[in-house]
C-alpha cells in the first residue's frame, strides 16, 4: 500500500517485503463450502507461506476453481476461516476490497474487458483503485506488457487478439495491481502448444522474482519446474500435498496414482 | 484422519462424506437482516420504500373498496361528497363492455367463440400438454375460420374475385348461382388459380430449374383459400351481424389476437428480408420496417380510414374492422421484425455452419435451427410488442369501432350515470381489465423463457 | 329510389353520434337512445310503422358526411350544424332543425361573473370540435379580450379539468353544458352565462339526388311539430282518430291522402306520433326538465310559445 | 440455374416487379378517385388564417396566424415533450432497471411493481392520472404557492419572471458565454490533471462560481440591463412572466414514467447479458461495486440496450400524440386535430403528419445507430 | 446414397464401397484463397485416397481450419479446383448439398444445436436430409452414441454436458449421416487431459473401420497411432507431408523441426 505510488524504476520488480509475523500469506482452516445442497469444499486446510509457489491439480469438478475463488472472496464460504495477508475474510466490504487489492487473479476464461483496449484493461484498476496518475499507470502497464512479450498489442481490443495473447494480457492486468499474491486458474487451457510454452515462461519468471503464487494447472512440466508444493484435489477435498518430485515419482494415495497414470500417457 | 508431516506433506487417509449445509441464514430474522438491512444505506432505502407503499396504497383501497358504492340503479346512488368508485355503473354497462352492440339474442355465439378460444389456447400454452401439432392446427387454422363464421354469421356472398373486377366474369356466368353459391365467382376463382399456378411454375423454373415445387405450393395456397371461402360462403342460417355491431372486449380481443397471430410470420419474414444478402429485398424490407416503425398508429389508422379508400379501385370499400386489423398487424409486424432481427444477430455463425455442414437446405436450416433459437432469445421483446399492441387497440375508436375503451367512453355519455366519479370508476375498471391481460402475458412469457432456456439446466 | 332500397333492405341505416348525452347514447341495455336517435325511429315509424326497423351507425365528426355520400347510411341524425357550405358544397340536404343550439359558457359562481364580456384573461376549457375553438377565438377577439384556450379530445376530460380548477370557464354547445354539468362535484356552484356566441341549428341530413326521401325525412319532423301544436300525443293519438278537427284528421290520416305523396301509407304521421310521440314528447323524454339534463325548452319551444319550432301545415 | 446468384437475381426482379405493379395500381386508383370525388388537394390551406388559440406556443402565434404557423407550433411542442420525456425516461429507466437487480428486497420489489404496473396499464390512463393528480394537488391562482414573490405555483402551472433585455445585455450574455467556455476548458484541464497527478479538482464549485459569478459582475458593471417581468395576478390569471402549463407537466411525466418501465426492462436485460465473469474480474481487481457498474458493466450492457432503447425513444415520441387527451397542443392535436377539423383536408394533413413523425423517427434512429456503432465491440 | 434407408443391423458399419475410378476421395489442385487482401491459402495441392487418414498440424493461424472448411464449401476458394467424391465444387447449390451430405464435419467449437436434445441433434439430419423415418434415425443415433460411450445422455441438452461429452456428441452427429469422408477440426482442443484420451479413442476406433479422415490436431500420439500421413502447414502453405514415423523422427524442413522441438518439450 505504501509503495503504491512509486513507479518501477528499472526492469526489476522491488523485492517483496515480508513484515514480521506475516510470513503466512494465505491460511485456510477447516473451510467448508456448499452450493445449495451440494458440498463442494470439505474441510480444506492449507497454509501458504510468503513466496511459496503452489500448484493445484485434480480432475474436473473437484473444486479447484472454487477454492481459489474463495481466497479472494468471489465465493463465500460457510464454515471455517480464511486469512489472507493477515486479514480474515468476513462480510465486511471494506476488508474484502482491501484484500482484493493485494490478491491478483487470472481467470480460466481471462474475463478481459472487451470494450477497453489492452492498455486500458491494464490501467483501469491502478487508476481507479490505486488512484495512480494515468501516465504512471500506463508506464507500469507497458512494463508488464513487455514482460509478457506483447507490448505491440497495447492499442488493440481483446477481441482482436489470439487466445494466447489474451491469456498473457490477463496476467499482465493482474500484475499491474502489484499484488502480493497471485492466483492462476488454468492459465494454459485452450492454448496452442507453442503458446503454452510462452505463458509458462512468463510465470516462471514471475516465480523467480519471489511472488506468492497459487496455480491450478495440469501442465506437469510447470509443476516440476516451478512449484514448491503440489496439491491434488478430488471431490472437494485435498487428497495429497507434497513437494513436486515426491508427488510425481512417488504418489501415495490411490486416487492420485490413478490420475497421474492417465495424464502421463 | 489424515497424515500430515512437518514439511507440509499431507495425505488424506479417509475421504470425507458430504454434509448437509449449515442452516445459518434461515428464519425470519436472518432473511430480514440479509435482504433488508444488510447495510445502513440499504436500511434507509427499505424504510423509504415502505413509506412509499404506505403513501400510495390506502387512498387507492379507499376509493376502490371502502368508500365505493355497490348498489343502485342510476346516478343518484353515486352522488354525494365522499363517494368512491360507482360499481353499479359498471354492473349496468357490463354486457356492453363485453359484447358491444352485438344483438343480445346472438350473444351465445360470442360466448361460444370465447369458450372455444380458451379451450384451445390453454392446452397450447401448457407446454407439457401433448398433441401440440393437432392443437396448433385447430387453434391457428380451424378456430379462426369457425370464429369468423360464428361472429359474422358466414354467408359472405362472395361475388367478385380477380377477374370479376375487370368485368370479365359477368359475361360468362352472369348471376347464376347454385345452392346459394355464385357460379361467376367460382369460375373466376378457378381461372385465377390456374393462371397463378402457371406463373409460379414459370418463375420457379427460371429461378431454380424446376417449377414443380413453386407450382404445387401455389396450388395448395389457392386450394386452402378456396376451401375457406367456400366455408364462409355457405349459409348456416345464422343471422348476419355486421362488424359495426361488434364492440367491447370482443373487438379488443379480436384485434389483439389477430394482430398477434398475423404479425408474427410477417415480422419474421421482414426480419429475414432485412438480413438477406439480396440488396433489393433488403432495401424493401428496410423501407417497410422503418416506415411503419416511424409513424404513430393513430396516423396509420387515420390513413386506413380516410385515405386507403382512395388508393383502392372505385367501389372497393373494405370493412372498417378489417382496415384496422390490417393496420395494426402491419404496424406490429414492423416492431416484431426488429425484435426478431436482434435475435437472429445473436445466433453465432457456428450454428449456421453446423447446419450447412449437415446438408440442410436454407429453409430447413432457418426453420429447424436458427429461428427456434432466435425466437426463444427474444421472447421478452416479442411480448413487449404484444403488450403494446394490446393496449394500442384502444386507438381503433378513431375508425368508429367501439373497442373495450370506446364502449366505456360511450357508456360515459349516458346522462343516467353522469356523476363525478363515473369516469374514475370506468377507468379503474378498464385499468384492471387491461392489467390482467397484459400482466398475464408478461408472466407467461417469463415462464416460457425459463422453460425454454436449455443452456443452464443441471 | 332510396325509399324502395330501404323497403327492400327492411330497415333504415341511421348515422348517429358516437355518444352525446341526451342526443344519442347507449342506455344500460345497449340500445341507442336520445333525441337524434328518436328522430330516426320516427322516420322508421313513418316508413315501416315499426320503430325497431332502424340500425344505427355511430360516426365521428370526420366520417359522417362520407358515410352519407357513399350511401353507407340513409339518414344522418347527428348534431350537425346547418351551414351554407355544408348544405351546398357537400352534396347534402339539411331537412330541418331538430334542436336549436348555441355555444355558451359555464363558470363557477364564486368567480362573480355575470356576463361573458367580463371574461378577459380567463382560461377556457373546450373540446376540439369543428367550430368550437374558432367560435371562442372570434368572440374574444371581437370583444378585445385576452384568453387562454385548452382544447381536449373528449368531453369527459374537459369537464374534469374544468372541475379541478384548471380553467375559469367551460365552453361548448349549451346542450352539452347541461349534460356535462352532471359530472361536476357540486353542480350548483356553477352557472351558465346568458351569452350565446354562436348559432347552432342541428338537424338531420340526407344526400342529394332523391327528393322523395328528402321529403319523407323532412316531413317526419314537421309531423311531430304539428302534432305537438295540435295537442296530439302518443297517448291520445288513438282517440284523435275520431277527432273532427280537420287539421287533426289530415295529420292522423283520416282525411286526405298525404301519405301517398310521400310514397307511404296515409297513416304515416299517425305511426310517428303513436310510436315515437310528438316533438314535445320526444324532447321531454330525452333532454327535458324531467331528465338528468333538465334543459328548458327555450328556443326549442313551439312558435306559439315564443320559441322557434315552426312547421308548415299538412294540407 | 442452380447458381445462387442467378436465383437471387430472379427473386429480386420478381419482388421488384410486384412492388412496382402494386404501387402503380395504388397511384392509378388514387388519381382516378381524386378526380372522381373532386376533392380539393394542395397545400394552399397552409396560408389561411387559423383562427384558433393555442395554449402553449414556443414561437409567437396568435389567432390571426396561419395554419402553417400552427403547424410549426405543433411540431415544436411535440419535440419539447419528446426531448424532455426521453431525458427523464432514460434516467428513471436506468435507475429502476438497476434497482431490479438490487440486493435489497424492498427496492427490488418496488422496482418490479413499478415495471409491472406501469408497463401493463394503458399510457392514456397514466397521463390522465398524472394530469388530474397534478391539478388536484395544486391550489387555484389566488391561493398560489409563492416562491419569494417571484414565481408562483398554481393549477395554471408554474409562472416565473420573464427576462427583458435592455441595453448592455450583450456584454452580460458574452460574459456568460465566456464563463461557460471557461468552465468547459477548466473541466478538461482538471480531468487531465486528475489523470496526471491523481488529485481531484473541485470542478463543481469553481464552475458554478464562474458561471454565476462572472455574469453577475458584468451585470453590476453594466447596471443591470436585464430586468425581469414579474408575473402578476390580474383578474383570473397571472399576467406576464413565463409559464409551464400543467398539461405539459402531466404529459411529460406520464410518458417518461411509462416509457421508463420499458427502458428498465431493457436495461435489466442488458445488464444480465454482461457475463458474471466481467463483474468478478472487476471485483478481483479491487474495483468497488459503483465503479464496476460504471466502468465495466454499463458500457458493455449498452450494446444490448441500445437497439430496443431506440425503439422506446420512438415510441415515446409517437405516444406524445396522446397529448390531446389532456389538452396539450402537440402536433396531432393542433394539426391533425383542430386544423383537420376546420379545413377538412385529410389527405394532405395526415400525409404531412406522418412525414413529420417519420423524419423525427429517422433522425432518432440515425443518431442512435451512430452511437451503437461506436460502442460496438471490435472483434476479429 | 442408395443405402441411405437401410439401418445398421449389427454393431459393425457396412464396409465403404469404392466405385471403380473413384479411389480418390478428395483432391485439391492449385487452390488459392484470399480473405480480402489477405492470402490465406497458397497453392495447396493435396490428394486423399479413399480410406486414407490424414493428420494436419501447424502453428496457429497457418490456415488449417480454412483448408478443411474449403473442402465442404463453408468457405469459397478463388482459384484452383477442389474435387470431392468425384464432384467438383462450384457455385452449383445442388452439388454442394450433395457433397455436404457425404462429408461429415466436426467443428473446433462443436456447434451443437443448444435447443435440441442430444438425440435430436443426431437425428435431425438423417430425418430431414436423408428422409429417414424417425424411428430408424433414432436407432441409428443410439448406435453411434453407444459407440462414443454416451448413450445415457441422449435425452439431455448440450448445455448440460461437459466439454468432452459435447465433443463426442459432435462426432456422433456427424457420423449419423454416414458420411464417406470425415473432417475433424481440433477435436481435442479445450478438453481436460482425461477427456482428451476418451475422444481420441473414439476416433481410433473409427479409423479402424476404414473411414476417410482429415484431422487437424496437435495430439502427436494420435498422429503416430492412426495417421497414414502427416501434413505440416505454415503461412497458408503445405510445408511438409510425410508418413508419421518419418515425419516425427526425421523432419526435413527447418520450420517443421522448430515446431516439433517446441511441442515435444
Ligand atoms: N454456482 C454453482 N452452483 C452449483 N454447483 C456449482 C456451481 N459452480 C460450480 N459448481 C459445482 O462445484 C464443483 C466444483 O467446481 P469447480 O469449478 O471448483 O471445479 P474445478 O475443480 O475447477 O473443475 P475444472 O477443472 O473443470 O475447472 C463442480 O462439481 C461444479 O459442478
Ligand atoms: N474471416 C476472416 N477474415 C480475415 N482473415 C481471416 C478470417 N478468418 C481467418 N482469417 C485469418 O486466416 C488465417 C488462417 O486462419 P485459420 O483459422 O485457418 O487458422 P488455423 O490454422 O486453423 O489456426 P488455429 O490453429 O489457431 O485454429 C489466420 O491468420 C486468420 O487470422
Ligand atoms: Mg476450474
Ligand atoms: Mg483452426
TrEMBL record, chains A, E:
Keywords linked to the UniProt accession: ATP-binding, Nucleotide-binding, Transport
Signal peptide: none
Ranges for domain ABC transporter: 26-260
GO terms assigned for molecular function: ABC-type amino acid transporter activity; ATP binding; ATP hydrolysis activity
InterPro entries associated with the record: AAA+_ATPase, ABC_ATPase_HisP-typ, ABC_transporter-like_ATP-bd, ABC_transporter-like_CS, MetN_ABC_transporter-like, P-loop_NTPase
Domain of life: Bacteria
Protein name, entry field: Arginine ABC transporter ATP-binding protein
TrEMBL record, chain B:
Example GO BP: amino acid transport
Domain ABC transmembrane type-1: from-to ranges: 249-445
InterPro entries xrefs: AA_ABC_transptr_permease_3TM (IPR010065), ArtM/GltK/GlnP/TcyL/YhdX-like (IPR043429), MetI-like (IPR000515), MetI-like_sf (IPR035906)
Membrane topology: Multi-pass membrane protein
A GO molecular-function descriptor: transmembrane transporter activity
Gene3D superfamilies, A to Z: MetI-like
UniProtKB keywords: Cell membrane, Membrane, Transmembrane, Transmembrane helix, Transport
Transmembrane annotation, as ranges: 43-65, 112-130, 137-163, 183-203, 215-234, 246-271, 283-308, 320-344, 365-387, 421-441
Any Pfam family: BPD_transp_1
Superkingdom of the source species: Bacteria
CC terms in the record's Gene Ontology section: ATP-binding cassette (ABC) transporter complex
Cell compartments where the protein resides: Cell inner membrane; Cell membrane
Record bears the keyword Mitochondrion: no
NCBIfam families per the UniProt record, alphabetical: HEQRo_perm_3TM (TIGR01726)
Sequence similarity: Belongs to the binding-protein-dependent transport system permease family. HisMQ subfamily.
Name by which UniProt lists this protein: Amino acid ABC transporter permease
Lineage: Bacteria, Pseudomonadati, Pseudomonadota, Alphaproteobacteria, Hyphomicrobiales
From TrEMBL, chain D:
Entry keyword set: Amino-acid transport, Cell membrane, Membrane, Transmembrane, Transmembrane helix, Transport
Superkingdom of source: Bacteria
One matching Pfam family: BPD_transp_1
Alphabetized InterPro entries for the sequence: AA_ABC_transptr_permease_3TM (IPR010065), ArtM/GltK/GlnP/TcyL/YhdX-like (IPR043429), MetI-like (IPR000515), MetI-like_sf (IPR035906)
GO CC, one annotated term: ATP-binding cassette (ABC) transporter complex
Swiss-Prot/TrEMBL GO biological process terms: amino acid transport
Transmembrane segments: 6-27, 71-96, 117-138, 171-189, 201-224, 244-264, 322-340, 346-371
Location in the cell: Cell inner membrane; Cell membrane
One annotated GO molecular function: transmembrane transporter activity
Membrane topology: Multi-pass membrane protein
PROSITE patterns: ABC_TM1 (PS50928)
Main location as per UniProt: membrane
Cross-referenced Gene3D superfamilies: MetI-like (1.10.3720.10)
Keyword Transmembrane: yes
Domain ABC transmembrane type-1: 75-368
NCBIfam families named among the record's database cross-references: HEQRo_perm_3TM (TIGR01726)
Similarity comment: family membership: Belongs to the binding-protein-dependent transport system permease family. HisMQ subfamily.
Protein name according to UniProt: Amino acid ABC transporter permease
Taxonomic classification: Bacteria, Pseudomonadati, Pseudomonadota, Alphaproteobacteria, Hyphomicrobiales
